[in-house]
Amino acid sequence: MTRTLDVVIVGGGRVGHQTAELLVARNDTVTVVEQDSEVVDRLADAWIATVIRGDGTDPGILEQAGVEGADVIAALTGVSGVNLAACLVAERLSPGIRTVARIEREGADAYGELVDEVVFPERAGARVAANRIAGDDIQTIADVTGDIEVMEVRVAEGAPAAGRSLRDIRFPSGTLVVSDDDGNQIARPETTIDAGTQYLVAAEPDVVDEVLALLRG
Amino acid sequence: MSSHGERSPEAELGLLDATMIGMGAMIGAGIFVLTGLAAEIAGPAAILVFALNGVVTAFTGLSYAELASAVPKSGGGYAFVREVFDDLASFLMGWMLWFAYMIAGALYALGFAPNFLELLHVYDVVPAPDQVGALVVPGLGVGVPPTVVLASVVILLLVGLNAVSTAASGSVETIFTITKVAILVVFVVFGTLSPMFSSAEFQPLFPGDRTAFSLLPAMGLTFIAFEGYDLITTVTEEVENPRENIPKAIFISLAATVVVYLAVVTVAVGTLGAAGLAEAGEAGIAQAATEFMPTGLPVIQNGGALIVFGAVFSTVTALNAVVIASSRVAFSMGREGQLLPSVGQIHHRFGTPFVAVVLSAVVMLGSVVLPTASAGNMSSLFFLLSFVVVNGAVIRLRRERPDMNRPYEVPYYPFTPLAGIALNLLLTGVLVVYLLQTDLVALLLSAGWLLAGVGMYVLLNAFRGRRQAGEPDEGSPAAVPEDD
């Protein structure tokens, strides 16, 4: 039985919004902090996360977003300084929270010392663009997936699927267990899902949470 | 896909479907099962009882709408309260709501039984319901009332269904609800046209020693009939554009339900009379219908059979809805670590919250030995209490998170949620006093459930503490801190 994450995302623009959607599909709890009322409305329409209206560097706003009980804060606005400030304020309010900041330029190493992780979404985007331009028939996993999520999942101890063969497990349709035993073999009906082992699983977004519920408990 | 078996994901629900889920739950059994019992307590004023309950519940409906639009989580009242209150308060909320749904399940099953017997009676399969003898258990020589047997059987059937397959889709629910409403419309139309209704006597409104205060216990008893909108908010994840559609679905289903209730109760009181209705008890509506519906029709022979069928159908579909609802509450509590983890797991083959369904079934089956009125009272009591907490959640959330985005806001805040709290507490108080005088067993069982909940909470915390101290949770990303 693994608990899901409680995540505060600062900035509900493209990157923040997409990130929230992916996390929520995995059953994580997400709260988004956003200042722009148009963006707030768009988030509310999508109905993926609770939204706190306000400045993500304001301690009062971050408190309302619940950083104190959160596992991670991800500051994903387009402005590095704001992201850094949000992470530092959160760290001050809730020592030990994991901090993730989006940065504008690659190689801004200095941030790496102040936050736990840095994100540079443009690089991932550029890799996808390069692959599309090349028009290759064969692409790496991260790039092929339009909507499908291809995940490497480590099966948790005591998960409903643990210790059973694929034949005995009925996954929701839109799921495919691809690899067996840490990626050495293609999965077969008699393949056993073992706790502690990683499997490559492809799933449509609608069913990601149910697939994870089966594999992670 | 060839390597392993699969199931289909659930469909998306529109505004109509969401509204119908709410109406389906409300119109289900409340009207068929409780009208007779309400008439017994309040006389012809039963009409007022349903109208006033509609008003009381509307305040909580507004609070639900605000929470559902601002907290994008399925799971109903429990999920909202979990967002706002600490561990113990949200645990108790889940615990009460779970019980309320399970007891509602027993109530609907108990309502199903006499109506089903009435249906068989209409076709002359069995003698009149009150003349059906007890079934003797072979070997023991103990007689079990046929209603208890029927109620248990119908619970086992629906629980079995829900344990092995995911819930019927919303579109099926829509067809079910339209069928129920259509049958009730037929009832109302024929009732108002019948000669019995033209000589209807609603005076005195409070016959005998009844006073306006007789309304209150009857309101307490029938309050459960309005629990449907909690059900709408338990499926929000599957509703399209929930920010707009959930509040709308809550209001439309509530308004439509009140209108239907008033029409049906008026006709029932007008035709059978409050005394006749009271005597018929759980099968009140069905019996009123057999009195005035035309007979000698092709195929269905007796027009009353249509309404009796409606009662049977309604209790079964409502039972199905609360089996789903109760298991979902237990399932969410399990996922949140507020019940044993296995309750929050889905079954590897069926894809259903199997343990949660089975646990709920055990309590439902245990409750069918209760009198119908006790089941109604207990379920209403727990809904009232949990609705108090829901209104409180709105107030607390506004104070603690003033900058939270609220696409829908309760009008006349804070008057509206405060009125909701006051009215729900008033009915709770009246119900408790009424139970003290008339149904001590129900009250003791309710108190017992709450005590068991507190005990469970303490045990579970000890269990979690030991787990966290002992084995480090392998494979979990970043140590997950306690959430409170």
Based on Cα principal axes, name the global outline of chain A: globular
The tally of helices of chain B reads 17
| Rg of chain A (CA only) | 19 Å
The SSE string of chain A, one letter per element, is: EHEHEHEHEEHHEEEEEEEEH
Question: What distance lies between the first and last C-alpha atoms of chain B, to the nearest angstrom?
Answer: 43 Å
Description:
The complex is a heterodimer of chains A (217) and B (484). By secondary structure, chain A is an alpha/beta fold. Chain A is built from 7 helices and 14 strands. A two-stranded antiparallel sheet of chain B has the order 2-3. Chain B has a two-stranded antiparallel ribbon with strand order 4-5. Helices cover 70% and strands 2% of the residues of chain B. The chains are: A alpha/beta (217), B mainly alpha (484). At the A-B interface, helix 2, strand 3, strand 9, strand 10 and helix 7 of A face strand 1 of B. Strand 9 (171-172) of chain A pairs parallel with strand 1 of chain B, so a sheet runs across the interface.
Main features:
heterodimer; A: 217 residues; 6-stranded parallel sheet; 3-stranded antiparallel sheet; 7 helices; 24% strand; globular; B: 484 residues; mainly alpha
Briefly, what is this?
The complex is a heterodimer of chains A (217) and B (484). Chain A has 217 residues and is an alpha/beta fold.
